[in-house]
């Protein structure tokens, strides 16, 4: 009997060891990737800070399509524009999902447009976005974008040391005007304080280490709140969101009902709410999705642009000379000028390439298994498109670590002459397939207007030490997270001439009429 029992124990032990060895292993048919270990797979290798650097390193070793195992889950990383175009654009119907993010589900009820799973809720939100965020509709908001851009110049002129917060205010105010019809004239505005607190606290919560790995260990969902601090945080942030965004919505709705509407996007949503199938709760999250995404990415781009200008004064001078030839010194640039500014257009594209605001984008997930190049990507796999790795591929771009706008004058997509760059597109930083950013037309106008304005108006120079020597800026010093912005840096911002300073002052006074339409109900700034 003891021999039989011993045999059974050994058999059971062998089965457990065999099972554990398979758990975390890369299944047959998956793209290659780093070696796995039992149970963890590649979880012990998974980078928690600036993952795009490690993902790019692995891409150079394992190719433009490789896989990682996190327990039983599969992560696929794409660092090849042609692969991304095929799987994310052409097969967008199969790769339009998002991986489950329990923290976001718990905080936002799965109603946040950017993070929502590909379900009926998402389709309703996307339909609303497609209805109101058209290029034609975006053009109607150009006056307030231009007026806010003038205030940005005014703020740079009078408080150049606060340029980073001035950009943050500008980005938030533009999207707030466009969405809710209410501007934010100062950085210390109460609406902005609440918005920054909500977005910061949520970012901390969803960042690695901010909460337990609930998506990997689902049983953690059932831990009582009294023992789960992260659950209390979800509830607190959820309450802050409800209060802030419902207040914004109700103010916009009340103005519209009083006949004081100013054409904001949310007014359009209210008018078509029944037709779009939008509940009040869904409408709230719709506005919050567009505001959080639009304000953060635009601010990050403009701050990164200033950083690049400070680091590359020679390039800045070439762009300014082109601006001066086309625009002159007696007026500010207008959007139509961009057509005659090829170097400035190239600079904008290069700024996107050099330091993309979302180096890994936002992960997708497969709705069905996909076969590609002899590999099988399983249903439910998480997909990262490594935008950083694509834009810094030395096979595509000459000296990719250098900031060189002229590369986009040589070839349409900035690639080496003779290299096929047809899989690249200028909207690549704005996402893929059915998840491409619906507000990109608004972002284009904002980026184009401000790039021209800043080059026309100011010189951006490094700060100097006590002996007058320039202090170099660090073009790699960026924040962590899905959206990446430069860490605080110092520079000297000076008007290029007294005449231009006077034009800024004059244009700021003239902008008051446009501002007045968006200042109803403002209190304390």
Automatic annotation (TrEMBL):
Keywords: Glycoprotein, Heme, Iron, Membrane, Metal-binding, Monooxygenase, Oxidoreductase, Signal, Transmembrane, Transmembrane helix. CDD domains: CYP64-like (cd11065). Heme binds at residue 437. PROSITE patterns: CYTOCHROME_P450 (PS00086). GO terms for cellular component: membrane. It is a single-pass membrane protein. InterPro entries: Cyt_P450 (IPR001128), Cyt_P450_CS (IPR017972), Cyt_P450_E_grp-I (IPR002401), Cyt_P450_sf (IPR036396), Cytochrome_P450_fung (IPR050364). Its cofactor is heme. Residues 1-19 form the signal peptide. Pathway: Secondary metabolite biosynthesis. One of its GO terms (molecular function) is iron ion binding. It is found in: Membrane. PANTHER family: CYTOCHROME P450 MONOOXYGENASE ALNH-RELATED (PTHR46300:SF2), P450, PUTATIVE (EUROFUNG)-RELATED-RELATED (PTHR46300). Belongs to the cytochrome P450 family. This is Cytochrome P450. It comes from Favolaschia claudopus.
């Amino acid at each position: 009997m003891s021999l039989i029992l011993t045999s059974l124990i050994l058999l059971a032990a062998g089965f457990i060891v065999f099972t554990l060895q398979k758990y975390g292993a890369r299944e047959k048919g998956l793209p290659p990737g780093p070696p796995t270990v039992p149970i963890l797979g590649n979880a012990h290798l998974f980078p928690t800070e600036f993952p795009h650097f490690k993902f790019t390193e692995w891409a150079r070793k394992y190719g433009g399509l490789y896989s990682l195992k996190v327990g039983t889950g599969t992560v696929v990383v794409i660092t090849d524009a042609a692969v991304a175009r095929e799987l994310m654009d052409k097969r967008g119907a199969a790769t339009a999902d998002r991986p489950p993010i329990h923290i976001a589900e718990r905080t936002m009820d799965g109603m946040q447009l950017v993070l929502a799973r590909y379900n009926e809720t998402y389709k309703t939100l996307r339909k609303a976005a497609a209805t109101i965020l058209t290029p034609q509709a975006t053009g109607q908001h150009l006056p307030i974008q231009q007026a806010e851009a003038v205030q940005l110049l005014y703020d740079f002129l009078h408080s150049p040391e606060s340029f980073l917060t001035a950009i943050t205010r500008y980005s938030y105010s533009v999207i707030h005007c466009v969405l809710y019809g209410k501007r934010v004239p100062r950085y210390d505005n109460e609406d902005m304080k609440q918005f920054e607190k909500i977005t910061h606290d949520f970012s901390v919560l969803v960042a690695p280490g901010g909460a337990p790995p609930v998506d990997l260990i689902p049983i953690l969902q059932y831990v009582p709140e009294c023992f789960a601090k992260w659950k209390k945080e979800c509830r607190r942030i959820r309450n802050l969101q409800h209060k802030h965004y419902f207040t914004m919505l109700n103010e916009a709705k009340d103005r519209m009902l009083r006949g004081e509407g100013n054409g904001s996007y949310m007014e359009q949503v209210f008018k078509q709410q029944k037709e779009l199938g939008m509940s009040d709760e869904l409408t709230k999250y719709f506005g919050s999705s567009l505001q959080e995404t639009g304000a953060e990415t635009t601010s990050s781009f403009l701050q990164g642009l200033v950083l690049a200008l400070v680091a590359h004064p020679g390039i800045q001078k070439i762009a300014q000379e082109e601006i001066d030839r086309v625009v002159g010194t007696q007026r500010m640039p207008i959007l139509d000028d961009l057509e005659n500014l090829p170097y400035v257009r190239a600079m904008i594209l290069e700024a996107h390439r050099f330091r993309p605001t979302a180096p890994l984008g936002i992960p997708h997930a497969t709705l069905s298994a996909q076969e590609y190049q002899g590999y099988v990507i399983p249903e439910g796999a998480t997909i990262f498109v490594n935008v950083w790795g694509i834009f810094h591929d030395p096979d595509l771009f000459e000296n990719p670590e250098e900031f060189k706008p002229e590369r986009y004058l040589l070839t349409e997509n900035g690639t080496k002459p003779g290299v096929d760059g047809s899989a690249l597109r200028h909207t690549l930083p704005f996402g893929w397939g059915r998840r491409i950013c619906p507000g990109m037309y608004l972002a284009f106008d904002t980026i184009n207007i401000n790039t021209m304005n800043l080059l026309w108006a100011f010189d951006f120079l490094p700060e100097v030490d006590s002996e007058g020597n320039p202090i170099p800026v660090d073009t790699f010093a960026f924040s962590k997270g899905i959206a990446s912005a430069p860490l605080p840096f110092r520079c000297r911002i000076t008007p290029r001439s007294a005449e231009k300073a006077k034009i800024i002052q004059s244009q700021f006074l003239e902008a008051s009429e446009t501002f007045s339409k968006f200042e109803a109900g403002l209190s304390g700034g």
